[in-house]
Amino acid sequence: MTAQDSATHPSAVAPRSPASGTALAALGVASFSLSFPATAWALEGFGPWTATGLRGALAGVLAALYLVAVGAPLPKRRHWPALLVVSGGCVLGFPLLTTLALRTSSTAHSAVVIGVLPLATAVCAALRTGRRPSRAFWAAAVAGAAAVLGFTLLQSHGRPTVADLLLFVGVAICAAGYAEGGRLSRDLPGAQVIAWAVVAALPVTLLTAALALPAEPVHLGAKALTGLAYTAAVSQFGGFVLWYRGMAEIGVPRASQLQLAQPLLTLVWSVLLLGEDLPAAAPVTAVVVLVCIAVTQRVRT
Known about the structure:
The chain is 73% helix and 0% strand. It is mainly alpha-helical. Helix 3 packs across helix 9, helix 4 (80-101) packs antiparallel against helix 8 and helix 7 (135-155) packs antiparallel against helix 14. 55% of the residues are buried.
């Protein structure tokens, strides 16, 4: 899918090469790949509700400062429904559900479960925009999703856990947020899309942090503070700036397939940063996923 194939006219984004959009989306994926390890670090010092509330609140402050600095105008009324979907899915729902899941699930396992996010994003984008990617695109996307689902079931002995269910629900609402954000980034700069979405969630994230802080134990430490800072500044804001800009340039379905590499990168970080054991099936899954990425990047709609 090219830039011209996206849902709306690219009025907010200057024309660039497909390679540029792919690079931006890939940098966003690389940023997101550290989100689960960073969340695990944050959970060493904060409860799940506190970590989620503070993450969103701190990101909201950064986003508000950015909007003031660039003199961003208020979004038009027609933009707000999509912004609220981004806010609910990417700022509130997905961070909370994945943080709750990481209390009982390893980072490596959780990372592979969310490997279905690219397919879910492509489905949401197709339903929302009316565009229909080619059969070859869907075949490669389904194959990649099947690979990560098979990996997940293998690791959980064929029975999804409560953490898996939390992750799958998180994937569904995050996919909707990604698709709406990618579509909206054709009208608004990607940085402003995520900034307004994070600011819109500020009343909820501030209230969550205020209620959770006295109710959950807090143990400040270098890892906990580093993890919280990363999830707030990068996972919740900076990474989205790159991601939405990339999606705006190459299209939501194609950009979403780059995320098939995210679980594999997170697996590496889980070993290097958290000392988790790498699942034996990970190399096989990596080969299948990388082949699927190559196919989806080459086929046309």
